[in-house]
Amino acid sequence: MTEIGGPTVPQQRKLVTAIPGPGSLERLDRKKAYVADGVGTTLPVFVVAAGGGVLVDVDGNSLIDLGSGIAVTTVGNAAPRVVARATEQLAAFTHTCFMVTPYDGYVDVAAKLAELTPGDHAKKSALFNSGAEAVENAVKIARVATGRDAVAVFDHAYHGRTNLTMAMTAKNMPYKNGFGPFAGEVYRAPMSYPLRDGLSGAEAAARAIDVLEKQVGAANLACVVIEPIQGEGGFVVPAPGFLPAIADWCRANGVLFVSDEIQAGFCRTGAWFAVDEESVVPDLITTAKGIAGGLPLAAVTGRAEVMDAVHAGGLGGTYGGNPVACAAALGAIEEMETGDLAGRARDIGALMRARLDALKDAHPVIAEVRGRGAMMAIELTTPGTLEPDAARTARVAAYCHSQGVVVLTCGTWGNVFRFLPPLSISDELLEEAFDVVAEAFSATA
Ligand SMILES: Cc1ncc(COP(=O)(O)O)c(C=O)c1O
Which InterPro entries match (predicted)? Predict the structure, then answer.
């Protein structure tokens, strides 16, 4: 337990200055002077401590965190088990490079991933530093294992900012604009987006499969990479039956089904992994974010024979599976297991859905409430149409920020609020945060 962060941070919203306050404004000038402008900031308060569902800034303001650092601090910020395990590991040794001399933490995380990910077949993992790196490596593995080149992704997908993952990501601004040329052999299929296409899961899958068969050819495809609930693209939840139909088609055609659970995985949706909802068993699964409670760690986990298709030395990297990050992951996973955080995510989901449904009834600008567990969203459109309302979204977000509630937006059109609170947040704090969100809708009407 630390003095300034973790559970000692009072679980309250408290504003003592405007947001951002003078201390943050002063630091923003330094940021402007020394940090590249391309690195953006959603809410420019400089954080000095965090714990549970609260961030404390340099001016002494306490903000309610509905973003978890983009779905990372699922177990809470500076969670006790994460801090204890990482601290112990820091004092023991900080790095060897697993490819030079191995250590237990890496193997322990791989064993946990084999146990927790869907399916009871033999599984193996390789560890990396970021989600994008995991996605890149899943594609490398799929290509070697199948001897094929092509990769299928979906409309609204987000898979990262490296060269291959930029090609896989759908949205141009800000992720791709000017950064090409992009990697080849990446093909995009239509996603199931019930609000906008009105199709059943089976119909949407047939549409996507038709595109892949006609435009790529199943025999050329190494893998289909899909977010079971899309993250950055707008928390798009495919219609029931879509994922199983795509997975079945993959299996029938020797195409590997890769579930990108970097945002949706590790208890976020009320299950260990989002594909568990429909009993889909992926060939490969990519994880990051929530896996290590805030330390950088990512993984590709998959069928042992697929993972082992790659030649010795073909996978790795200097820092992949760093011992401190692995220790943090073991602490985070223990927290999830002992605290039944999947159950807590379902409870949080029920609370958020009730609040958001009421908000939708009061404000026709909200076209849809969607999501699962502690991964909920609302999409804003001009009432009675599907015309995205990004301007109102921005005004509501600005109001919430000014009142000390950290909310995140997303979506291809920038018109979606995504709510991703840490699972350690109390009901009281959540209710208070949604009081502010409700106030924001009324104040910006
Ligand atoms: C589904 C998904 N895949 C991949 C990534 C990329 O992860 P990272 O930012 O760690 O590279 C993200 C990040 O938001 C994500 O949500």
Answer: 4NH2But_aminotransferase_bac, Aminotrans_3, Aminotrans_3_PPA_site, Class-III_PLP-dep_AT, PyrdxlP-dep_Trfase, PyrdxlP-dep_Trfase_major, PyrdxlP-dep_Trfase_small
